[in-house]
C-alpha cells in the first residue's frame, strides 16, 4: 500500500521516525471532513472531464462505503503517515490502482487545510450555540432577580448597590461579544483552500468554484501559496476561545468567592460541589475551581500555535501539522467548560436577603449622599466627596451605620472641614443611603434600575431569537 514512498525511496522510515511524524491520532477528528473533501474534489474532476466518469463513480462509491463503515474501517500501519493516506489506501483496497486518480490535481497540503476549515466551522457553530443557550438561561435568571439588590465591587471592595439581575446581565453582554467575535472569525474560516494543490495550483483545468459550492464555503482562497500555508484562522479562533474562557473564568471565580461563608451570597447546587475526606462539614466548589483552572488551557494552546506559526517560510512546512492538535484541544476544553459553567451558574441559588444586607452596609451608598449635596445644595462634587469621605471615616471609627447619619452629623463635619452647613433634610439623607433607592434612581441606559435592566433583557431576547433562527433552532 505504501505506494507514495516506493518511487522515491528504497526503504521505509524507521518505526520510531514514522510514529514521531504521524498525525494519525489527531487526524481522527478530520476523518469525515476528509471524505467530504475527497468527494467534492472527485465530483469536480468528473464534472470537468478531468478523470473518467466511471472511475470517478467507483471512487465516490468507495468513499460512500467508508463513510458508512466509519473510522475503524481504515487500516493503519507505520507506513501510513496520516488520515489522507489511510483513506486513499482504503479506496485502493476497494477499487484497485484507479483510486490513484482521486489525487489528481490535489495535494495533502490543500486537503488538510480544507479539512481543518470544514471541521472548525462546525465546531465554531456548536460553541456559538452553547453561548446562546447560556445567555438565554442568564436572561431568564435575571428576570427572577430584577428587584433584588446586591452589592457591586471595585477592587473587590464594596462599591455601589446594583441588582443581581444587573450583575447577571453584565455576563450576558460579555458572552454576546464572545459570540459575535466568533461570527467574525467564521468569515475567515469559511474560505476554500482546495485547488491550491501543493502550493502552485495545478495544470489541470479544475473548477474551484464548484468545490467551493459543494463544500459550502463562501469563496475560495485567491492565492495558492496562502491557501496551503495560512493558519492565522486557527490562531484567531483560539484567541476567541481565550476571550470566552476569560468570561467563564470570571464567572467561576465569582462562584468560588460568593459561596464562601464570608460572602455567603449563593448556595451552589450539590451536583457541582464536593466534600472533604476529613472535614465532614465541607462543601467545596471543586467544579468551579477546576473550570477556573481549565480556562487557562486555551491560552497555552494559543501561545503554542502562535509560536509554531512564527517565521515559518512560505509555503507548506510540516510544522503546520503540529498546530492542529492544539486547536482540537482548545476546542474540547472550551466546549466542556462552557457546558459545565452554564449548568453550574444556572443551578445556583441566590441568598437574596444576604445580598440585600451587603448592599446596605459599609457605606456602599455614599456616592448618592454626595450626589444629593450636589443636586440639592449646588456644591461642587469634589467638595461633597470630601465631606462624605470624612463622614464615612468618622462613622466607621465610631461604629455608626447608615441609619445613624443625620443632618446635624453631616453639618458638624462640613463646618469642621471649613464649609458652610448644608441643612439637608433627614429623610432625604436616609433615602440617599438606601440601596433600593440607589438602584431605582439609576434609571439611565445601561444602569441597574429594574426598568433599564428589563430593556436590556428585551434587547437580548430579540438578539437571541434572531441568532437561534439563523442557526435553524
Ligand atoms: N498530515 C499532514 C498535516 O497535517 C498532511 C499534509 C502532509 N503534507 C506533506 N507535504 N507531508 O499537515
UniProtKB/TrEMBL annotation:
Segments forming a coiled coil: 165-192
Superkingdom assignment: Archaea
BP-aspect Gene Ontology terms: L-arginine biosynthetic process via ornithine
Keyword terms: Amino-acid biosynthesis, Arginine biosynthesis, Coiled coil, Cytoplasm, Lyase
Pathway terms, separated by semicolons: Amino-acid biosynthesis; L-arginine biosynthesis; L-arginine from L-ornithine and carbamoyl phosphate: step 3/3
Keyword Cytoplasm found: yes
Transmembrane segments: none
Enzyme class: lyase
CDD domains: Argininosuccinate_lyase
InterPro entries: Arg_succ_lyase_C, Argininosuccinate_lyase, Fumarase/histidase_N, Fumarate_lyase_fam, Fumarate_lyase_N, L-Aspartase-like
GO cellular component, one term: cytosol
Enzyme Commission numbers on file: 4.3.2.1
Localisation: Cytoplasm
Gene Ontology MF terms: argininosuccinate lyase activity
Principal localisation: cytoplasm
Domain Fumarate lyase N-terminal: 17-296
Segments forming domain Argininosuccinate lyase C-terminal: 363-439
SUPFAM superfamilies in alphabetical order: L-aspartase-like (SSF48557)
Catalytic reaction(s) noted: 2-(N(omega)-L-arginino)succinate = fumarate + L-arginine
PANTHER family, per the entry: ARGININOSUCCINATE LYASE
Family affiliation: Belongs to the lyase 1 family. Argininosuccinate lyase subfamily.
The name this protein goes by in its record: Argininosuccinate lyase
